[in-house]
UniProtKB/TrEMBL annotation:
PANTHER family membership: BIFURCATING [FEFE] HYDROGENASE GAMMA SUBUNIT, NADH-QUINONE OXIDOREDUCTASE, E SUBUNIT
Protein known as: Formate dehydrogenase subunit gamma
Entry's Gene Ontology molecular function annotations: 2 iron, 2 sulfur cluster binding; metal ion binding; oxidoreductase activity
Binding site for [2Fe-2S] cluster: C84, C89, C125, C129
Annotated organism of origin: Crossiella cryophila
NCBIfam families per UniProt: PRK05988.1
Keywords assigned by UniProt, alphabetized: 2Fe-2S, Iron, Iron-sulfur, Metal-binding
Gene3D superfamilies reported for this sequence: Glutaredoxin, NADH-quinone oxidoreductase subunit E
Cofactors (names): [2Fe-2S] cluster
Cofactor mode of binding and number, as noted: Binds 1 [2Fe-2S] cluster.
SUPFAM superfamilies according to UniProt: Thioredoxin-like
């Protein structure tokens, strides 16, 4: 099968993102956020390109990517469900909600369903402590979640597909 030369390589696309942020102070984080927005994750193959372009070591770039939980090393599902497991949410049933989500989706926290549709993640504060248990679906914040409400939100997301 011939190589499609009409599409820019991943390295070229990474360099393009770097160029957009090159003058920014502390450019690595905005670059990583832009790459994740464009690709859906930060591929390990991007790290040497970023290191070379920003005059950083591969270890420095890798350290930032792995330190921040918002950066993914693999593509996420179409729907990203984040459930808060901080103390305030735990005190009002977050662990039961996590167990329900894992059972419903058939996958554990930190993984994506077998069909690739939903990624289930844990977070340790969404800033919605007074309305716990809290969660986030594709960036939208929800409070006072229970199994039935979570199911309704996930069903609505599935219908949008």
């Amino acid at each position: 099968m011939p190589i499609d030369t009409s599409e820019p390589s991943m390295a070229d696309r990474v360099r393009s993102v770097v160029d957009r942020h090159r003058g920014d102070r502390g450019a690595l984080l905005p670059i990583l956020h832009s790459l994740q927005a464009e690709f859906g994750y930060v591929d390990q193959a991007m790290i040497p390109v970023l290191a070379a372009e920003l005059n950083l070591s591969r270890a420095e770039v890798h350290g930032v990517v792995t330190f921040y939980h918002d950066f993914r090393a693999e593509p996420a599902g179409r729907t990203v469900l984040k459930l808060c497991r901080a103390e305030a949410c735990q005190s009002v049933g977050a662990e039961d909600l996590v167990a329900h989500a894992e059972t419903r989706l058939g996958s554990k926290i930190g993984s994506t369903t077998a069909d690739g549709q939903v990624t289930l993640e844990q977070v340790f504060c969404l800033g919605n402590c007074a309305l716990g248990p809290a969660g986030q679906v594709n960036g939208r914040l929800y409070g006072r979640l229970d199994a039935a409400r979570l199911d309704g939100i996930l069903d609505a997301e599935a219908e949008r597909a």
